[in-house]
Amino acid sequence: MVNQQLILVTGGAGFVGSAVVDRLVADGHHVRVVDVLHPGAHAAMPDYLEPGVEYQWGDLADPVVAGAAVRGVDAVCHQASMVGLGVDFSDVVDFAHHNVVATASLLRALHDRDFRGRLVLASSMVVYGEGAYRCAAHGPVRAPARREADLARGRFDPRCERCGRDLDVVRVEEDAAPDPRSVYAATKLHQEHLCAAYGREHTSPVLALRYHNVYGPRMPASSPYSGVAAIFRSAYEEGRAPKVFEDGAQQRDFVHVDDVATANQLALGAPGAVTGACNVASGTAHTVLELARALHRAIPGAPPPEVSGCWRAADVRHVLASTARAEAELGFRAAVGFAEGVPAFAGAPLRASVEAVGSVPSS
C-alpha cells in the first residue's frame, strides 16, 4: 500500500473500525474517522482512540457531516453500520437509517467531489442467508426457508425439497445468489448494491468484504446487537450459564478482528482490477456450542453452557466460507486460529454494556 494516503474510516470508533484505524496508523497513513458515537453502542467515549487521528463525531446520514468527512480523502473504508438481529422488527427504520440512508449520504458526498478512489465496504455473510448445501442425490441445492413447524419440533437442519434427505454443508462462494433473511441482512445487501452502483458510474474500484463471525477485543459486551462470542462471555462473567440456541450444532466460521483488519489493509491497497465481493473468514468451521465450551474452559469458575433448544426464525443454520478468492485476489490468509484466539478473547477488553436505546449503529 502506498504510504501517506488520507483514508476515511466510517465507524472508526467501533469494534472492527477501530482495529482498522490502528492498522492504518501503524502503516503511516493519515486517518480521518467519522462516527456517531450512539449511546446505544458506546457507554462513554472509548479509551482506545488513536492519537493523531482526526475524529469527527456525527451522523453520516447528515449531508453536512458526510460532506466534511470525505473532503480530500484518497480512499474510503466504510465500516459504519448497525449490526445484528436487533430486538425485533421494530428496529427496521433504524437499520434502514444507519445502514442504507447513511451509505447513500456518504456516496452522494463522494459523488459531489467526483471521488474515484478505492472504496472498501464492510459487508457480511448474512447476505447469503443460509450457506451452501449439497444433496447426495441431486447435487448442489438451495436450502429452503426455515419452517416454524420444523423448528418447533427440533428439526433444525435443512432438507432437500425434492427427496427429503438431510443436506451436506459446503463452503459458500461469493457468486452464490444472495438471500437475505433478516432486516439487517437486507440492509447489508442494499449497501453492497449502492456501493457497486457508485463504482460503475464513477469507475471507482469497490470491494465488499463479507465478514463472517468476527470476535475479539472491543466488542460491545452484551446487547441485542452484540455478537454471540461477547454475549456468551458476558454471561459467564456474570455467573450465568449462556443459553445456546437450537442444539448448538449450527456451524460458523469465527474470524478474529485482527485478521479482519488485515483484510481491510490488503483491500485498500489492492489493484484497481480487484472489485466485487470477498469472504473474510478463517477458513475453519466450528459449532456455536464449541465456541461456548471453549470460552467456558478459559473462564475459571463459570457455569457450563446450556443448550436451550430455543430458536429464532431469522437465524440460519450453517454458513461456512470459501476463502479462495480472498487469498487469490488479496493474498489474505487468517493468522489467528480458533484454539488461540478464543481463549485470548476470554480476557480481552470489551466495551461496557449499554442499554438498547432504539438503535445501535456501530461496527
Based on the model shown, name its key terms.
three-stranded antiparallel beta sheet; 10 helices; globular; disordered C terminus; 363 residues; seven-stranded parallel beta sheet; 17% strand; alpha/beta
The best one-word shape is globular
State the helicity in percent bands: 25-40%
Total DSSP helices = 10
What low-confidence regions span 5 or more consecutive residues with pLDDT below 50?
Answer: 356-363
Briefly characterize the structure:
The protein is α/β, with parallel strands linked by helices and 363 residues long.
Structure in words:
With 363 residues, the protein is of the alpha/beta class. 31% of the residues lie in helices and 17% in strands. The chain has helices at 15-26, 63-70, 92-112, 148-152, 183-202, 228-237, 257-268, 288-298, 324-330, 338-345; strands spanning 6-10, 30-35, 54-57, 75-78, 118-124, 132-135, 139-141, 168-170, 206-211, 213-215, 243-244, 251-252, 254-256, 276-280, 286-287, 306-307. The strands form 5 sheets. A 7-stranded parallel β-sheet has the order 3-2-1-4-5-9-14, with helices on both faces. Helix 1 links the parallel strand 1 (6-10) and strand 2. The longest helix is centred in the first third of the chain and has 21 residues, at 92-112. It is globular and about 55 Å long.
